Every structure is written in structure tokens, then in C-alpha cells.
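Late entry, evening session. Most of the bench is empty. Finally got around to the prediction I had been postponing all week. Sequence below, unchanged from the version circulated by S.P.
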Amino acid sequence: MPRSWCRSALGAVLAGAVLLQAPRYRVSYEVEAVRVHAGTRTTIGVGRVSGPLETDLRLALRGDSLEVESLFSLLAQADSATLVGEFRTRRLVGRSRRGLPLWEDDAYRRTARVAWGGVLRIYPLGMPRTGAADSLWLEVALTRRETGGDTRPTETVTIPAAPLALTIEAVVRPRRARVTLTLARNDSTSAPRDLDLGLGGPARRVRLVLGGGEPPGELDVTLVPPADSGRRPVDFVCLRVALPYSVSPIGLVCGRLNNVARRLPLPGGDTLVATFAWPASR
């Protein structure tokens, strides 16, 4: 047996042992939603989301004249974490001459760094003016602890009687998906081609063979998250489709991991049919 091969094999074994011994963590979001109206402070609700380190937090506040939807994700470091929040707000600002409600919509993204065990105060409607009688904010505390293995996310929420309703959800997005592709051209259809793709991984070239002597179709495909992930279901993904050696994609075909066929028209009249599903093992 060559010595170089032995060294490579030993290195692979040692690397695997290091990965097995690497600590796994469980992260917790402690949330309190607070509203001050006419100088009176009210706790809208408190909640807690806990799960693996890749767990995100989806939060919503809803009332007759206000809606706040947000998705929090984090980038973990040894002593701190960077919290990224994607927000969509909707406020009732008045009524038209015909009495119809007029709403103001806004969408934005905020990023902040916090030490583990620290607390962030977030103003989803913007920082109130000095001395303002009305304000709304979220207090988010981040903690983490080592755990013996991967465990399912959990969530709890307590909502007192308040003019706004608070809901929170633990979000663990899929890392992989099973994608089944079929190419349709005129009256000919290719055999289904199954791919196991990682989210954000490199492009995969797929060759779809049709019957009847038709030339095969070749495409480069990449599994990516949707651009508006904060407003999509947890298991919603997109497939970026491009021609081989092309810089610009043809388009996106998106859907949930529910085995429902999605169609994307291709140049030349072909149609790509894609279905998304969870991989065999999760």
C-alpha cells in the first residue's frame, strides 16, 4: 500500500473524528413585545423559540391598524452572533373619500451584533422621537448551550389581553431537496431525472433525453432560497436554471417541498417541469 495513500486515509479518519467530537449547540430566542400608548406600557406578549443553531425565528404582530411580519436569522461566532432581521410592516394611515382604508407598506432589513446572553431592542416601526408618547419595540435575547445531538425546535408564547396579537414560530429551513426534472418538447417528454441538491451549492449539469430521435436538452441547475424568504413557507425553495456556459440564468422555478409539478418555459419552446420534495433522510 503506498505511503501517501496511508497518510491520506489517516488524515481522513482524524478529520472525521474531529467532526464527531465538535460540540453541537442549541440556540434560544427570548422575545418580549412591548407597546407604549399614551405613556402607558403594555406587554403584548412574551415567547421563546429554541432549536438547532440554524433555527430562525418568524414573528408577527397583528392588530386592526397594524401588521408587522419579521424573520430573524443569525450568524454564530464563538462569543457573539450577528442577528439579521427582515421586516415587512403595514400600517393604516387613513381612509379615502369613499371610506376605504389606506395602508402604508414598507419592507426593510436590519443587522446587529450581540454577545451570547445579551439583549437587543428592535423598533420595527423606527426609532420614536424623543418624548414620544407612543412607541413599539421588541426585546430579543440570544443564548446558546451545548447539546449532545440535534434536537427538534420548540416554541412557547404567552399572550395577555392586548390590542395586538403576537405569534412566533421556529423556522428550520431545508438544507437539501430532492428535485425531479422532466423536459417536454412538442409531443415528446423525457424520462424523469432525480437530483439531490444542496441549498446554495454549485450548479449541476443535467442531461434530459427525449424519445423520437429528438436532441437531448442540457441545463445547469442550482437550488437557491427565494428572494423574499421572510414571506414564504419554511419549505419553499427555488431552482435557478441556466444554459450551459451561460452567465445569465434563463429563470427561476419555485415551489414548496410537496411534490407538486412546477413549469418553466425555456427558449425554443421547451418546457421544464420540476417537482420539489424532502430528501430521503433529514
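Two things to note before I forget:
The radius of gyration is 24 Å.
Helices lie at 3-21.
Will write this up properly tomorrow.
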